[in-house]
């Protein structure tokens, strides 16, 4: 009886911790599938954001597109929640002349605030905008 109870408690604990691990990493991956948006040119737009115990905020953003796309532009910002609204404290941009793009950066943040990642990805074919996707991440207290 005790063994069965221990196995039950352990199983419930594992089921609770696995989803929490995904939230703790602040990772979001959206793909062109049944569950994701039905994009025309974008096939995958992935964003991750985390803040270390020393206040080092780090993000990774990647965008993959169909083969007919020849330019990818990614813009990303770290925002701080202050005085009742989100304020951009640092922004970056990346342009790639291919069907994929990647942007990752690090920035130290001040303790005592909530932070989040906001990013956009745009894809072009012969300098004509085909599609744009946006991401606003969950907020993290530091």
Description:
The protein is of the alpha+beta class. It has one domain: Immunoglobulin-like. It has one helix spanning 2-25, and strands at residues 27-31, 42-51, 56-65, 71-82, 85-96, 100-108, 114-125, 128-136, 140-141. Strands 4, 5, 7, 8 and 9 form a 5-stranded antiparallel beta sheet that branches. The protein has a 4-stranded antiparallel beta sheet with strand order 1-2-3-6. The protein is globular.
Beta-strand percentage range = over 45%
Radius of gyration: 19 Å
Task: Quickly count the helices.
Answer: 1
CATH fold assignment: Immunoglobulin-like
- The proportion of residues forming helix, as a percent range, comes to 10-25%
Query: What's the number of structural domains?
Result: 1
The overall pLDDT average reads 84
CATH architecture: Sandwich
Count of β-strands: 9
Contiguous uncertain segments of 5+ residues: 18-25, 27-35
Shape: globular
Question: Could you write a compact summary of the structure shown?
Answer:
The chain is of the alpha+beta class and 142 residues long. The chain is built from one helix and nine strands.
């Amino acid at each position: 009886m005790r063994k069965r109870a221990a196995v039950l408690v352990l199983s419930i604990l594992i089921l609770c911790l696995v989803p929490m691990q995904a939230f703790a990493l602040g990772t979001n991956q959206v793909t062109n599938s049944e569950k994701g948006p039905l994009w025309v040119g974008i096939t995958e737009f992935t964003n991750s954001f985390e803040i270390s115990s020393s206040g080092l905020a780090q993000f990774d953003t990647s965008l993959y597109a169909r083969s007919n796309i020849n330019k990818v532009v990614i813009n990303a910002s770290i925002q701080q929640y202050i005085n009742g609204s989100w304020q951009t404290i640092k922004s970056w941009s990346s342009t790639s002349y291919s069907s994929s793009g990647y942007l990752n950066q690090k920035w130290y943040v001040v303790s005592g605030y909530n932070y989040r990642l906001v990013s956009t990805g745009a894809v072009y074919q012969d300098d004509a905008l085909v599609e744009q996707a946006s991401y606003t991440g969950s907020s993290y207290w530091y």
